[in-house]
Amino acid sequence: MTDILIAGVGMTNFGRHMDKSYKDLTAEAVQMALGDAGADKNEVGEAFFASCVIGFLQDQHMVPGQVALRSMGFEGIPIFNVEGACASATSGLYLAAQAIRAGSCDVAIAVGTEKMFTHDKAKMFAAFDSAWDVTTVDSNQEYLLKMGEGITPPEGSQSGKPYSMFMDVYAAFCRQHIKTFGTTQEQIAAVCAKNHTHSVHNPLAQYQIPYTVEEVLAAPPITYPLTLPMCAPISDGSAAAVLCNAEGLKRLKGDASRAVRLLSSVFRSGTSRAAEDYEQHITALAAKEAYEKAGVSPQDVSVVEVHDATAMGEIIQVENLQLVPWGEGGPAAERGDFTIGGRVPVNPSGGLESKGHPIGATGLGQIFELVTQLRGEAGARQVEGARIAVQENGGGLVGLEEATAAVSILSKQ
């Protein structure tokens, strides 16, 4: 099989960019990735542009990738627009790798961009509304919220301000985990406090303010057991990666020793399962396949970036990635196992909760962090001796789990 290398990465600050267009953000990330790889745009054979809500919020309903990249001088090459909800950018990464393996090109670029902030807050939150089957909204909600039945939220634990309806779904996942495994709100808060503390050392993070567990618990509620710092914010941003094979790497002018190997990139769509059948969870199945294809085990993993749209997401996904047994994610977080310096650091970037979550760019933001870690270039948040990295990224909901899930495994050369 053709070796796939990530030769260059680029990422904007995630956050509020009211003065920049989606084209501006794209150009910033792409130029950084090309510069990092020592690549000229004319050496790129194919491009994959990921976004979710540029059409809904910016009115660029069609050809957003062609518009953004043409303005940078990309002409003549195949440019594909990719959408997979929050897993859109990782979808672009996967397809870029497939194009290289298929022999279509030696060098490809994947870019994810989202421009989500708008003065119309109702419209901004409505951007998430189509991340499930829009023809069955009522039954979707009924089906998913049943997972949380049996836990009575304390009085005053729900926000009176608008928030995404998906936070109620995440809260239901929390409550099911609480009922099944005894996970506590304090353990969820420990994940959140850890990620916010990590983000202090990430200059590209949306938030760089540390929290204690007590401060997380005392923060304004969203919906029990979630408080505001436990939830990923609305974000603008862009991230990009230049991928190549060995032949393509020879033509680039960057330092070849800094290239990182993409050992495996696995996507799965959901299947029907019982809520308690954790071994058949979409991410657990994707992780098992990714480890097998990469030829590594969970015990080999040095550093991880997971999709923590809420802090509970990290607990669920470290279990699915086999980093701890099911039900042990909360206690492990409370012990500090996933903190930088712990057994296996998770979300050294600060995660989606504090790094930010521009949904169409999120997956490549995770890749940016892991490439930086494997190169040993993460500064104060560096994971010592990082050699094997795992990325988990999910998008949308169908049934009781993600519509699509991705697990990628990277290694130092």
From TrEMBL:
- Return one GO MF term: acetyl-CoA C-acyltransferase activity
Checking SUPFAM superfamilies in the record gives: Thiolase-like (SSF53901)
Query: Per its UniProt record, what CDD domains does this chain match?
Result: SCP-x_thiolase
Q: Thiolase C-terminal domain: from which residue to which, for each copy?
A: 275-399
| Domain called Thiolase N-terminal: residue spans | 5-206
A family per Pfam = Thiolase_N
What is the name of the protein in this document? Answer: Thiolase family protein
- Biological source species: Halioxenophilus aromaticivorans
